[in-house]
């Protein structure tokens, strides 16, 4: 199996990469880890005439702490996130999420920027970065801009990153000491994508939830924030009844899609189950 | 538009003009002539094509050869040193961790990373870390045993 | 003593050094000078007429060597069906579709180019003008009024109607029954998914007229015979078929396929070698698939649990064409096994084979026997539930009592030997069944759903004898060949007609031969898989290699020994009748000091200066073994599961297997095959299933991203044991071990899930796999609906 022919570019800077995008427009595709794009190209479902590989652009990979956030370069692999002492210390749920993507070999190549830009509706990261209120930094011909996660996922496999822009950084606020986080997923038996995945980040002050942030992936056409669940938790103690009642709200606002892994009814149910599990796990931390 | 690609595979430098669309696995099999690395699926599920690229186990069917320009690669053929089998190879033989042999090179290359990252994994950890390797013959029982056995022998060395 | 050491020993495999170092020789590894590369243009439609094929743009593509369509292949016949039931409707199956495509993936043209990329690019440029027709993929819908008609020769899409057993006797059993248990049982379609995709290299040598085909085959001689004599009409002796290292088969590499046939034809046209290697998408679309039955079954019982009768009506989906052995699978490999290990009073089964617009269905690991075992074992548990009896007790009550030489079933077969009770008892002990039931009750009290499922199966191996299978419709003999060549130095090469694609013949047959000859195993080599050097052989499927292929080798060894005795007697000036052979020595009975070593006899045979009168020089013997009957391995498996009531997810906690495969050459290898078989059967129970869209005819589960194969993390360590009931059928006492795990495990797992949910009122699943959603819905229906 081989992709259709294309020209291959290895820009040395973001600027050069942007110039290539500007020049070739819809005929160009960015290549990061390639673990979504290359299979699509092998099936010839994707046939970009120009492939712009970001691997030679310096500074796009790496994790650092800056101004209360983890700053993760777009080309940082899932394995780098999963194994990063900094991530494990400051935002363990992100490492835990990364560790549930695909398989070890896929995680060695796949990147956070690639995954988020691709916006597969069953990808793992989106739920967690929604829960963590991350921000995406993109660069375009007009310079840098920051996109809040709630504005990032637009529709099926579509993000707010423009066709002439490149996602360069993900900024994830560091989890405070009183923040409990968890990501729970029900994996597809073959692909290991999330049939449903729910991430929860709960701030508890004085025994009550002062901030609840819940992200959902897998069930619908795009990852979404579970606002109903958040509202149901806010100001409450995390007892069983509260958690159950909040979890019941998980399907609200999710355009649940039926497929071989589940009917709308079943996936709707799973959303509640995994919301509950994610909240319970987050509550324990 | 062909591109010159140079990479070191098992300590030997290979340089070829390739189409950018050439997959790394085809470079390894067709141009370097190292046919131990296999192609078992199209979608990076099966892991038969697993090699080590710059210290990381990767699926060579889901990389372009041009992406590996300048890389240091180890394939199954490069695992034995000075005519002596790697302990994981020994272990797969000893514990009957293979039948038809097709998934085996990828399985062994993946196992090498498992033990590099965790020299003393539990059964559950081994099974979880084998998520990216499919075997249709063994039911995994003896593969897990082989990796456990390799962990023991490597710990003694 | 060498004998005791080799037979029955877990000797490490001699195949492994090449596989663990990446030095295997698979078909796709082969590179020949002047090689060209093939890509097939395939139908994207499930049912469509070909109005025309435009190859002009493709031909102009750089690097294209040749493009052929079905119309170019004049004088080429249909791919044959090798098992002809009475009144079987056999549609044309051209290697390249000429008039119409009948399933997605049906090939219509071959593009041959200087590189694989050029072939693929050019194949993209071939334009087929399709007249798309309505299609049908559903087994249950295929023969219903109004379903699209696929082949003119097969009205209502019916390929055959078959029945076995005694209808009147069965009706009578149901009349006197106290209890009748009825269930619909759907045995879903599976994709074999050997890890190595199919591949071939075909090379025609113009100067000699010789054609060599390297192909991923389980039976190279069968491939050669079918392809030359039936399809291409070229001389069999000018074709050499080599099956080098083959990466798994599970049945899917038995059959003669379009691709190697077309490549073998095309290399004669272009006079250059051609390589074709399937990608996984093609494998999903074109490798013959397995199972796909819809069955209504009913069991007649007396109040005390005696199984009086079994009535079965099955519709078997054969796909778009008749694959090589397709008609045999749902008939003589399925319906004949419906007696199981139970002393049924009467049985009657009807099977209707139907065509659909899907990939052809043929033998997949177990082939018919898993369908029979699944039906029986599911029904036995359903009967136990209906009678409120313990499923273990109901089994024991109905087991056929121990027999050593023959049990006539109600469905034609004569079992060889069996002793089912002790095997099951061993399993119950390993499981600690009583304790499990206590644990289960305790867990239920905490809201945890544990279950155990049993499967006490029988299987039929080494299908034979040829005379009988011929009468049943087989177009081939089912014997095996074994040739033993003793070299002048006493080293031995064994040629077997069996073929290893993972089974480890190079090790086990060397164990067998060295053991029988009393010589070091290192002195024996095994050769297989090459029609150029191996006598005609039938290959490997149906768990036949050790029992049939092994016996053929044994027969040749015995001939070697007899000839050796005459030579040794001559050297010792003794009478051949007084000679014996043991531990690598020919010796005079009662005088072991009067001995000649095997190696000396070998040398003398080739340097016959001092040689007995009337004996030919040389030491090489060939035998063909045609068994007198099938062999019938049996066993008892148990699976323990926990079901997550919130998600329906099933976790396997324990898996236990006690198998009786007769005598065993290499326990390590047999255990390995049992393990792998279990995993495949678990795969059917929980994860695997080929799903077609019944409107478009597209295979929805067409990649490993969608079709869920068993992974390491879904399976436990297997607890295995054996009882040994040697078969009287062959002198080795070996029954067969390659498929037992697959046959046994599917019902064990499903029964375990049903058992786990039995407290909620779930008593059956009509369909597999037991996906989390199916399990969850069953729980919902049982708890809310009642």
Can you put this structure into words, describing what you see?
The complex is a heterotrimer of chains A (about 280), B (about 160) and C (about 775). Chain A has 11 helices and 14 strands. With about 280 residues, chain A is an alpha+beta fold. Chain A folds into 3 domains: about 45 residues, Uridine Diphospho-n-acetylenolpyruvylglucosamine Reductase, domain 2 (2-Layer Sandwich), CATH 3.30.43.10; about 110 residues, Uridine Diphospho-n-acetylenolpyruvylglucosamine Reductase, domain 3 (2-Layer Sandwich); about 100 residues, CO dehydrogenase flavoprotein, C-terminal domain (Enolase-like, domain 1, 2-Layer Sandwich), CATH 3.30.390.50. Chain B is an alpha+beta fold and about 160 residues long. Chain B folds into 2 domains: about 80 residues, Ubiquitin-like (UB roll) (Roll); about 70 residues, [2Fe-2S]-binding domain (DNA polymerase, domain 1). The longest helix of chain B is centred in the last third of the chain and has 16 residues. The mean pLDDT of chain B is about 95. The longest helix of chain C is centred in the last third of the chain and has 28 residues. Chain C has a 7-stranded mixed beta sheet with strand order 3-5-1-12-9-10-11, with helices on both faces. In chain C, strands 7-15-14-13-8 form a 5-stranded mixed beta sheet, sandwiched between helices. Chain C is an alpha+beta fold and about 775 residues long. Chain C is globular and about 90 Å long. Chain C has 3 domains: about 170 residues, 2-Layer Sandwich (Aldehyde Oxidoreductase, domain 4); about 190 residues, Alpha-Beta Complex (Aldehyde Oxidoreductase, domain 3), CATH 3.90.1170.50; about 325 residues, Aldehyde oxidase/xanthine dehydrogenase, molybdopterin binding domain (Aldehyde Oxidoreductase, domain 4), CATH 3.30.365.
């Amino acid at each position: 199996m081989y992709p259709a022919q294309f020209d291959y570019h290895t820009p040395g800077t973001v600027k050069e990469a942007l110039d290539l995008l500007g020049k070739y427009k819809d005929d160009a595709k960015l290549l990061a880890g390639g673990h979504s794009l290359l299979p699509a190209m092998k099936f010839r479902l994707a046939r970009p005439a120009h492939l712009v590989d970001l691997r030679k652009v310096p500074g796009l990979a790496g994790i650092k702490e800056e101004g209360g956030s983890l700053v993760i370069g777009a080309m940082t692999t899932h394995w780098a996130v999963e194994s990063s002492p900094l991530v494990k210390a400051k935002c363990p749920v992100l490492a835990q999420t990364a560790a549930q993507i695909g398989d070890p070999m896929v995680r060695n190549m796949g990147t956070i920027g690639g995954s988020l830009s691709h916006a597969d509706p069953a990808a793992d990261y989106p739920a967690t970065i929604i829960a963590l209120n991350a921000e995406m930094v993109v660069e375009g011909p007009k310079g840098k801009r920051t996109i809040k996660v709630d504005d990032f996922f637009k529709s099926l496999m579509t993000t707010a990153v423009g066709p002439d822009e490149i996602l360069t950084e993900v900024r994830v606020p560091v989890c405070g000491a009183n923040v409990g986080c968890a990501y729970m997923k029900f994996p597809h038996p073959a692909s290991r994508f999330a049939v449903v995945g729910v991430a929860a980040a709960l701030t508890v002050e004085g025994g009550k939830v002062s901030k609840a942030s819940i992200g959902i992936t897998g069930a619908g056409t795009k990852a979404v924030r579970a606002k109903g669940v958040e509202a149901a938790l806010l100001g409450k103690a995390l007892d069983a009844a509260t958690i159950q009642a909040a979890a019941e709200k998980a399907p609200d606002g999710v355009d649940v899609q039926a497929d071989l892994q589940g009917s709308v009814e079943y996936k709707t149910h799973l959303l509640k189950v995994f919301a509950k599990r994610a909240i319970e796990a987050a509550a324990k931390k | 538009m062909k591109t010159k690609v140079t990479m070191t595979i098992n300590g030997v430098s290979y340089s070829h003009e390739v189409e950018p669309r050439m997959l790394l696995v085809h470079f390894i099999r067709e141009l370097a002539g190292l046919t131990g690395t296999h192609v078992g699926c199209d979608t990076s599920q099966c892991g038969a094509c697993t090699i080590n690229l710059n210290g990381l186990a990767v699926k060579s069917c889901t990389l372009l050869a041009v992406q590996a320009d300048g890389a240091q690669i180890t394939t199954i053929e490069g695992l034995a040193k000075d005519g002596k089998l790697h302990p994981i190879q020994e272990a797969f033989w000893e514990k009957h961790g293979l039948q038809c042999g097709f998934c085996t090179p990828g399985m062994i290359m993946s196992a090498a990373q498992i033990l590099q990252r965790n020299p003393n994994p539990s059964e559950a950890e081994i099974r979880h870390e084998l998520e990216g390797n499919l075997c249709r013959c063994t039911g995994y029982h003896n593969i897990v045993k082989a990796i456990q056995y390799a962990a023991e022998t490597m710990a003694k060395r | 003593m060498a004998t005791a050491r080799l037979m029955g020993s877990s000797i490490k495999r001699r195949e492994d050094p090449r596989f663990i170092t990446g030095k295997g020789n698979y078909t796709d590894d082969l590179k020949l000078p002047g090689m060209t590369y093939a890509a097939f243009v395939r139908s994207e439609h499930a049912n469509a007429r070909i109005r025309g094929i435009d190859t002009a743009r493709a031909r102009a593509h750089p690097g294209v060597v040749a493009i052929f369509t079905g119309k170019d292949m004049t004088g080429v016949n249909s791919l044959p069906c090798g098992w002809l039931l009475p009144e079987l409707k056999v549609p044309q199956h051209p290697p390249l579709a000429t008039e119409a495509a009948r399933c997605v993936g049906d090939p219509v043209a071959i593009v041959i180019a200087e590189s694989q990329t050029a072939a693929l690019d050019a194949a993209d440029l071939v334009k087929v003008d399709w007249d798309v027709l309505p299609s049908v993929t559903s087994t249950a819908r295929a023969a219903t009024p109004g379903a699209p008609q696929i082949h003119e020769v097969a009205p209502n899409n019916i390929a055959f109607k078959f029945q076995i057993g005694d209808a009147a006797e069965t009706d009578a059993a149901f009349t006197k029954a106290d209890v009748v248990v009825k269930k619909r049982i759907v045995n879903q379609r599976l994709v074999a998914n050997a890890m190595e995709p199919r591949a071939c290299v075909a090379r025609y040598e113009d100067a000699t007229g010789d054609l060599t085909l390297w192909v991923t085959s389980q039976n190279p001689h069968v491939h050669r015979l079918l392809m030359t004599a039936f399809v291409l009409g070229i001389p069999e002796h000018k074709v050499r078929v080599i099956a080098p290292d083959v990466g798994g088969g599970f049945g899917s590499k038995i059959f003669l396929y379009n691709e190697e046939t077309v490549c073998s034809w095309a290399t004669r046209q272009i006079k250059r070698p051609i390589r074709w290697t399937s990608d996984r998408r093609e494998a999903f679309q074109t490798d013959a698939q397995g199972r796909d039955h819809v069955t209504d079954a009913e069991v007649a019982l007396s109040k005390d649990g005696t199984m009086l009768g079994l009535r079965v009506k099955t519709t078997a989906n054969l796909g778009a064409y008749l694959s090589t052995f397709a008609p045999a699978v749902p008939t003589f490999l399925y319906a004949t096994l419906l007696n199981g290990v139970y002393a049924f009073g009467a049985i009657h089964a009807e099977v209707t084979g139907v065509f659909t617009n899907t990939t052809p269905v043929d033998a997949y690991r177990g082939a018919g026997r898993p369908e029979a075992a699944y039906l029986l074992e599911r029904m036995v548990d359903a009967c136990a539930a209906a009678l409120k009896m313990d499923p273990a007790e109901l089994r024991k009550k109905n087991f056929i009592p121990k027999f050593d030489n023959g049990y006539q079933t109600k469905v034609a077969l004569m079992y060889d030997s069996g002793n089912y009770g002790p095997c099951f008892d061993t399993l119950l002990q390993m499981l600690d069944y009583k304790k499990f039931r206590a644990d289960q009750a305790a867990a239920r009290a905490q809201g945890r759903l544990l279950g155990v499922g049993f499967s006490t199966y029988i299987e039929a191996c080494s299908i034979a004898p040829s005379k009988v299978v011929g009468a049943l419709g087989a177009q081939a003999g089912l014997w095996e060949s074994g040739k033993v060549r003793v070299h002048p130095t006493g080293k031995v090469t064994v040629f077997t007609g069996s073929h290893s694609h993972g089974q480890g013949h190079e090790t086990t047959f060397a164990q067998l031969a060295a053991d029988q000859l009393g010589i070091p195993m290192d002195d024996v080599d095994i050769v297989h898989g090459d029609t150029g050097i191996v006598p005609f052989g039938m290959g490997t499927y149906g768990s036949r290699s050790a029992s049939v292929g092994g016996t053929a080798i044994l027969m040749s060894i015995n001939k070697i020994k007899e000839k050796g005795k005459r030579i040794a007697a001559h050297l010792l000036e003794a009478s051949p009748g007084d000679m014996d052979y043991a531990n690598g020595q020919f010796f005079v009975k009662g005088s072991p000091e009067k001995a000649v070593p095997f190696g000396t006899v070998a040398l003398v045979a080739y340097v016959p200066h001092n040689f007995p009168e009337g004996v030919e020089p040389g030491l090489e013997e060939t035998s063909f073994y045609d068994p007198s009957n099938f062999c019938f391995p049996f066993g008892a498996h148990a699976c323990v599961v926990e079901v997550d009531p919130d998600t329906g997810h099933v976790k396997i906690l324990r898996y236990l297997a006690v198998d009786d495969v007769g005598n065993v050459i290499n326990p390590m290898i047999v255990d390995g095959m049992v393990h792998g078989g279990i995993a495949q059967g678990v795969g059917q129970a929980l994860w695997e299933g080929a799903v077609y869209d019944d409107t478009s005819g597209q295979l929805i589960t067409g990649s490993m991203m969608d079709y869920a194969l068993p992974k390491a993390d879904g399976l436990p360590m297997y607890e295995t044991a054996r009882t040994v009931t040697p078969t009287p059928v062959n002198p080795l006492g070996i029954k067969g071990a390659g498929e037992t795990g697959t046959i046994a495990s599917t019902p064990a797992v499903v029964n375990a899930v049903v058992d786990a949910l039995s407290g909620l009122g779930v008593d059956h699943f009509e369909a597999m796999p037991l996906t989390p959603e199916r399990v969850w819905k069953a729980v919902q229906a049982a708890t809310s609906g009642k």
